[in-house]
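Table S5 (text form). Sequence records supplied for joint modeling of the two-component complex.
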Amino acid sequence: MELHQKSLTDAERIDWLRLIQTKNVGPRLFAELLSRLGNATQALEALPGLVRRGGVRRKFTIPDRQRAETEMAALGAIGGRAIALCEPEYPETLAAIADPPPVLFVIGDVSRLSAPSIAIVGAHNASSNGRRFAENIAAQLGEAGFVVVSGLARGIDAAAHTGALASGTIAAIAGGLDVVYPPEHEELQRRIGETGAVVSEQPLGTRPTARHFPARNRLISGLSRGVLVVEAALKSGSLITSRLALEQGREVFAVPGSPRDPRCRGTNDLLRQGAILTESAADIVDAVSSQVLKYRSPERPLVLLQPIERKEETEPTLDHEKIIELLGATPTGVDELVRECHMSAAAVQSTLLELELAGRVERHPGNRISLIL
Amino acid sequence: MELHQKSLTDAERIDWLRLIQTKNVGPRLFAELLSRLGNATQALEALPGLVRRGGVRRKFTIPDRQRAETEMAALGAIGGRAIALCEPEYPETLAAIADPPPVLFVIGDVSRLSAPSIAIVGAHNASSNGRRFAENIAAQLGEAGFVVVSGLARGIDAAAHTGALASGTIAAIAGGLDVVYPPEHEELQRRIGETGAVVSEQPLGTRPTARHFPARNRLISGLSRGVLVVEAALKSGSLITSRLALEQGREVFAVPGSPRDPRCRGTNDLLRQGAILTESAADIVDAVSSQVLKYRSPERPLVLLQPIERKEETEPTLDHEKIIELLGATPTGVDELVRECHMSAAAVQSTLLELELAGRVERHPGNRISLIL
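The corresponding structure-token record, covering 746 residues in total, follows.
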């Protein structure tokens, strides 16, 4: 089964939605479940058994189909769509990141998601100069055929969207598509949906909290060929977005500013670290035109392996307890774990997947794992 | 004869002064004459013959000794000194450039010329922010043990000198030591001479004109381990200084600024070309502390070769006319000339030296030469 560019039926899409909305299932675990079990429908059926084997005693029911159908209808009612990672309309740049959202909710012109795009982000408390710069360069990038992506925040984000409204800009938001944050951007969000697109990976009704913003930031950089940072203090959210961009193999651009303005410390620091100095749209167009798209036609992260052999037992086996014993609160490398527990790598991975679904272990970057105490 | 670090007698120093003040003799030709004729006194004696062989028909008298002695006395009267390139007090960093002034005039503390130094240059019409930045960073560099070098111009230069007054700053000026330009910096120039030093390669009484400033700029960078540019428009004098610094193997530092301010275009462009981004003195101290001084203990550019054999004839010979015939207004490579004229390289060089002294040919960078029509 080739998951790349396969359109789903409505029923299949409902199952994708149910699976990603399952407790303890994030983008990475979703991909692992699909690669082991073939498709979302089969993964959902296998869930109760996997969770029990992972050590959860109470009854586990798979997420409600009715509820997912209701959500999909509500999405349709506000003019939204859900696009699955395997579908041709899913943006290729976003599909190429390590943890793409399995389902992306979109209001607006879905075709804008596949046009070459540049993210513009920066300080919420931006200077008047910074806002004007962002608005102008966004307009220029729009005229040059780029879609401007940003996060609908106050300051630089809002200025960038405003400058690029005419050319169709993309807002990646942290909450549900029917939630406006910050509230004063209601009109702006509506207008973006008319000429461009508003995207989110969160279910309708989700009010954004602190944990949603870093996830949203990876969408901003993931949707883009490069990220331009216009005014950013040290340790600001924009710098997180630029770090994610680098991890995703995207270009980072930064606008220089006076050392006397704390809002330029972050951008100057990016320049010191090798970001491309940007004074006008030409600086960006020049850099991305000569860019070799590392993420072009990638192998999408969902690759189907042989489905695991489903064992009869549903109770935790000796394997699970052996691994639990070896783990602690400090993350341990999975490779190390495999060496220490005298099990095959495949058996360790299956066991970890079940423990993760059961909420007993946590994944960390660098293929490391820790016990949730 | 070893020209490196040899103190001169007063009479010898007078002859150095007479030779460099001879018509058509600049720093490079001065070095060539010394290397061919052994010392300034012998070079002066040979001059009339060389000039006649170069094709000047009118009577040539060597520069007047009395006049040079008077100038030296006038220099002493205002507290100044003349330091020759071969003397131990001549700053090593300046001696290492391609065309060091053979004689440097100094008022103030000569020992400051040999301390580690950083030049600070920038726009004359600098912003208030830029001036404050220059003054603060100059003070910090002074506290960190660096001598701040600048050009006594309006704007950034004046701010840098002011900030570094307490630690002893060096002003390299375009006119004579007894001329103040711009006039409003009379008090500043006097104060610099008290705690630091004012240097010039021009004779007393010289009023600076356009041609003196690029020559002065090479002194600023030549005296320094690195040049910091604070605010500079595109195509400004500060960018010339930074280009000279690169040619001299010195580090270039630049302060980032808003793309909306034309006074930051030049500095941002330097950053794009690889200048070190500078927000505080620490950025400079870090960079030069780890610097390998390429110009440390260099072979001084004056190396004595065998004196040329003095021919009897004083009239232009066939050689001279052959070379004149091959040259035109467009610069030609000397190597090419040697190949075309069927003379030895040494003979071509001697002939060119005579033609140059006679004001008939002009040297260009890259060992090229053109006819003065």
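Note: Residues 128-143 of chain B form the longest helix (16 residues).
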